[in-house]
Design goal:
The complex is a heterodimer of chains A (229) and B (402).
Chain A (H helix, E strand, L loop, with lengths): L3 H6 L6 E17 L2 H10 L2 H13 L11 H8 L4 H8 L9 H17 L13 E17 L2 H10 L2 H14 L6 H7 L7 H10 L6 H16 L3
Chain B lengths: L15 H9 L6 E6 L6 H15 L3 E6 L4 H14 L8 H17 L6 E5 L15 E5 L9 H11 L4 E4 L12 E3 L16 H10 L8 E5 L8 H12 L5 E6 L6 H14 L5 E5 L5 H10 L2 E4 L8 H8 L4 E4 L4 H4 L6 E4 L2 H13 L1 H18 L2 H15 L5
Parallel strand pairs in B: 1-2, 1-3, 3-4, 4-5, 5-6, 7-8, 7-10, 8-9, 10-11, 11-12
Classes of the chains: A alpha+beta (229), B alpha/beta (402).
């Protein structure tokens, strides 16, 4: 079993490189004024739009994170004034889904089931339609490379939040690295080979935290592994 | 030697300068051209004066060309501007021909060689006909074209569809187009005369020079005297506030001498203000950046009580100065004013008066909202974020997903 000293001294064969990102937003000119149209458009839009409306919560400023972590739920609750649908969609956790089509399918099932139990389709009551947007993520390598857990921890503590989004959210659903880049590197033999810590880090995404919350949790896990707390 | 970008290190969110440098490496050496219709005056020119040198510093070969036009051309594009924003205009075939002729002349005169060209607003839109082979062209629309006069939009649309992409400031401003439309908010420059931090003595000197005493809370609205900005509604709100709170109202805006409706609105505002010595109507020239800055810094609460608004960057200017904003529930005000966080959105003079009184009664709440307003503006509405979006778009159009 590795001691804290071994863990601190171990140098990975392959370094971890922090890559940050920004979101370029594309307006799709598709607007829903009621929940039926919302359902139809969710069915047809590009997967990047489903991704945007269920993940942009993380990149948003804390002041505008909305009622729920996905835009469909917030729009239903506030603009269609349908609190039940808002709550049913609001509980969805994107980290429970392995790919965006399964997430889309779950959203569609919830809305269709809800509409089948009500007589009148709720319409936008505030004049604000649901505007579908799609995101394109543009990456930039931050030139920050780490080989030990201590170095990784220190860089993670200060890195741009866009890098956390990129290595956790983007890695999972748009690049198919389901554990996220941090956990993959920590667990991998060419990385730090710390599978137990890797598993703990992979679970952080499931806690429903903000990017800052994820950062703090992972830094805390690293500190515990290094014996500094 | 520290460059211009370094000056933004202390005002932009942490890590921004490094991120911009890394992002720009992906388009280093690319040629980017901006084309608009004026070198001075107006928000577009104001931002380009800074954006272009910042892009150059980041290794992009950025240039800015300004088109020249005849009196008839400018009259036509002014009509376009109004028609596209929903006020019906009479535009004759001669005017359309003058517009196209002017664009053709400028296409011969201007150097349009670049890898990526951004054409700002309708005036130079028809330059697309002269696009050099292989270049990516973007139409950057700074105005609200959500309810345009159909005939004018159809004319303009025939040029817009030839672009590789368009940019709008809000999703609701977008029209159905067969080209991708990107969402990029406009921005303010935190280091310009209009937005830089002023010493308290400087604020006092300028504000007193404008005849405004700072002996009581100041409610300020900075805007043209235009019905959509609802200056008379602001005075109504002020009168409701005055029933319980002593305060001053400052309405600062342009003279709008070339706009007959503006003169009419100003007359209505003067009538509504009457002889109240605590209402100050300030007619400022477009160059009065320092005066606007000082007034915003001296204000207690800033209004932007519009009933219709484009993006409304005066809101971002006020937020950046740490002032809570009470704004009309319309256009871009709704993405800048977060109710209960950076200010309040309202639909009536009564609503504006209600929230103003709430803030005047609770200085602690006002301070919290002011701090949040500044941080929100820092994150969302500074030129550094705008620069990042433009670089991102250049990368995207160059085929650049990493």
């Amino acid at each position: 079993m590795s001691t804290e000293r071994d863990i601190a001294a171990h140098r990975a064969k392959e370094p971890f490189r922090f890559v940050s990102c920004m979101e370029l937003r594309e307006i799709l000119s598709k607007r829903a004024m009621d929940e039926q149209r919302l359902l139809e458009l969710i069915e047809e839009v590009h997967p990047d739009s489903i991704y945007y409306h269920t993940h942009r919560y993380f990149l948003r400023h804390p002041y505008i994170q909305g009622l729920y972590p996905n835009d469909f739920a917030t729009w239903a609750a506030i603009h269609a004034q349908d609190r039940i649908l808002g709550e049913r969609l609001g509980i969805l956790d994107p980290f429970e889904f392995d790919d965006i089509e399964r997430l889309r399918s779950e959203i569609l099932t919830i809305i269709a089931d809800h509409l089948s139990h009500i007589r009148t389709v709720p319409r936008c009551a505030t004049g604000e339609p649901f505007e579908f947007v799609r995101s394109h993520v543009i990456e930039a390598d931050l030139n920050r490379e780490t080989r030990t857990l201590g170095e990784f921890r220190d860089e993670l503590a200060t890195v741009d939040p866009g890098a956390i989004f990129n290595h956790v959210c983007e890695a999972r659903l748009r690049k198919g690295r389901l554990l996220g880049d941090f956990a993959c590197w920590i667990s991998a033999d060419e990385g730090l080979g710390l599978s137990e810590l890797g598993e703990q880090v992979a679970k952080v995404g499931r806690l429903g935290l903000s990017l800052e919350g994820m950062r703090n949790q992972i830094v805390g896990l690293c500190d515990r592994a290094l014996g500094s707390v | 030697m520290a460059g211009m970008l370094e000056q933004y290190r202390d005002v932009a969110p942490p890590g921004t300068v490094e991120f911009l440098r890394q992002l720009a490496r992906r388009v280093e050496g690319k040629r980017m051209l901006h084309v608009n219709s004026t070198r001075y005056g107006g928000g577009v020119a104001e931002i380009l004066h800074r954006l272009v040198p910042l892009m150059e510093e980041l290794g992009v070969q950025a240039r800015w060309e300004v088109m020249a036009g005849t009196e008839l051309f400018y009259r036509t594009t002014k009509s376009f501007h109004n028609a596209l924003q929903g006020t019906p205009q009479s535009v004759t075939p001669d005017m359309l021909e003058a517009y196209l002729e002017c664009n053709r002349d400028n296409a011969k005169r201007l150097n349009l060689e670049a890898d990526v060209t951004m054409i700002h607003d309708p005036q130079p839109a028809a330059l697309i006909e002269a696009r050099p082979p292989g270049a990516k062209w973007i139409w950057r629309c700074h105005i609200d074209i959500s309810t345009p006069q159909r005939s004018i939009w159809q004319f303009l649309r025939s040029y817009v569809v030839q672009y590789d992409a368009a940019i709008c400031s809000l999703p609701k401003f977008a029209q159905r187009l067969p080209i991708p439309q990107f969402l990029i908010y406009p921005s303010i420059d935190p280091l310009s005369d209009k937005n830089r931090e002023l010493a308290p003595e400087e604020v006092n000197r300028i504000v007193e020079g404008l005849g405004v005493l700072q002996d009581k809370p100041i409610i300020l609205q900075v805007s043209r005297f235009d019905r959509f900005k609802d200056p008379v509604g602001v005075i109504e709100a002020y009168r409701l506030i005055r029933k319980s709170h002593d305060c001053r109202l400052v309405l600062a805006g342009g003279t709008a001498t070339d706009d007959p409706e503006g003169v009419e609105v100003l007359a209505d505002v003067q009538k509504a203000a009457g002889s109240d010595p605590d209402i100050h109507l300030l007619l400022l020239p477009p160059t009065a950046s320092l005066e606007i800055n000082a007034l915003q810094q001296a204000a207690t609460i800033v209004f932007q009580k519009s009933t219709r608004e484009g993006f409304g960057l005066t809101v971002a200017e006020a937020l950046w100065k740490g002032k809570p904003v009470i704004g009309g529930q319309t256009g871009g005000i709704m993405v800048q004013v977060i109710p209960g966080v950076t200010g309040y959105t309202v639909n009536s003079p009564e609503g504006a008066a209600f929230y103003t009184k709430r803030l005047l009664n609770d200085p602690e709440l006002m301070a919290v909202l002011g701090r949040q307003a500044k941080e929100y503006a820092r994150e969302r509405f500074l030129i550094t974020r705008h620069l990042q979006d433009y670089l991102g778009l250049m990368i995207h159009l160059s085929g650049g997903r990493a």
